[in-house]
Design a protein that fits this description.
Blueprint lengths: L12 H8 L16 H10 L12 H15 L4 H5 L2 H13 L6 H12 L19 H20 L3 H6 L1 H14 L5 H14 L1 E2 L4 H6 L10 E5 L13 E6 L4 E7 L2 H8 L2 H8 L13 E6 L8 H12 L8 E2 L1
Parallel strand pairs: 1-6
Antiparallel strand pairs: 2-5, 3-4, 3-5
């Protein structure tokens, strides 16, 4: 028997949200048509609740994982150890030798849960400060688009890139094909640094909301296209560079050395990396424009806060989304 649904009342998402315990939050402005698909998808996936695999770990498993990590870590944090595929493989091998039968990815995710104190026991305090300065300038324009593509294609967070060896290898290969010369650890640590830099703290929120892009847009230097760079002089020191098409921003990057950063960002290797494995878009070097602004032209706030403001307002296609801390 076929039941008629013509008299069925329309779905009420507000009421469903109340029943399920959800709540409405302010959203950002959407772009028209297909131009906004990737940024909107990235924002939705980045804000999703953490969904861990339904894998059972016994108390004995957790104790083995904890002790194995303490044996291998040499004072490192969980993130720092998992950023090193060699150390991670040693850790997984030790866990398996001592009887843990779950997959390497599941064991690593369990360790990440221990780091977050949501199960498994307390880990010792990190004693090694491993800063690795300069990674954003050297590899950021390759690593960040790779992070975004992994998020869109697989729903992979940065934790997933650290925990799952296959996802980590795919991410690294994508970043390395765009800018080579880094180690496996450097590409992963750069991803961690980018994720950390995308958090807006409560202390910075009032000033962030007051920043007016209209104050700085005319201060950006037009450097021509990737195909035909202008002879305009690039200021020394820190600043922000932007790649954009006529209809949308593609990538915003902050650099300690703006001159070197512009040369990296505007290279054909980076542009080819942005368009790699993307059948629906082929970037034309003649259409991709480069603009830059020095720290001296950014009033009131730090260069990093202005970078966050630009990313939050423009929502460039290949930038990791901004999140509140």
């Amino acid at each position: 028997m076929v039941h008629s649904v013509t008299n069925q009342r329309p779905f009420n998402p507000w009421r469903a949200g109340r029943v399920l315990g959800g709540h409405m939050v302010p959203g950002t402005r959407l772009r028209f048509g297909g131009f906004g698909v990737m940024p909107s998808t990235v924002e939705l996936l980045a804000a999703r609740p953490e969904c861990l695999p339904d894998v059972h770990f016994s108390d004995t498993d957790d104790e083995v994982i904890r002790k194995s990590f303490e044996e291998i870590r040499d004072g490192m944090s969980v993130d720092r150890m998992l950023a090193d595929p060699v150390l991670t493989k040693r850790f997984n091998s030790l866990c398996r030798t001592l009887g843990v039968r779950q997959s390497a990815a599941d064991i690593n995710r369990r360790l990440l849960r221990m780091r977050k104190a949501s199960g498994g026991g307390i880990l010792r305090r990190t004693t090694v400060a491993d800063k690795h300065p300069g990674l954003l300038d050297r590899f950021g324009p390759a690593v960040e688009p790779a992070m975004v593509k992994m998020l869109v294609r697989y729903g992979a967070s940065v934790d997933d890139l650290l925990a799952d060896p296959e996802l980590g290898e795919s991410f690294e290969a994508m970043a390395r094909a765009t800018i080579e010369g880094g180690t496996s650890v450097e590409y992963r640590l750069c991803a961690l640094q980018i994720r950390k830099s995308r958090y807006l703290t409560k202390a910075d929120t009032p000033l962030f909301q007051q920043l007016d892009l209209g104050l700085i847009l005319d201060e950006f230097i037009d450097l021509g296209s990737v195909a035909e760079r202008s002879n305009t002089e690039i200021p020394d020191g820190e600043g922000i560079a932007v790649l954009l098409e006529p209809t949308r921003p593609l990538l915003v990057s902050r650099f300690k050395d703006l001159q070197s950063g512009v040369n990296t960002l505007a290279s054909r290797h980076v542009l080819e990396g942005l368009g790699a494995d993307t059948a629906l878009w082929r970037p034309d070097p003649r259409d991709i424009q480069i603009r830059a602004i020095s720290a001296e032209e950014l009033p009131t706030a730090s260069v990093q806060l202005w970078e966050l403001r630009l990313i939050g307002e423009w929502r460039p296609v290949f930038n990791w989304p901004l999140r509140a801390a």
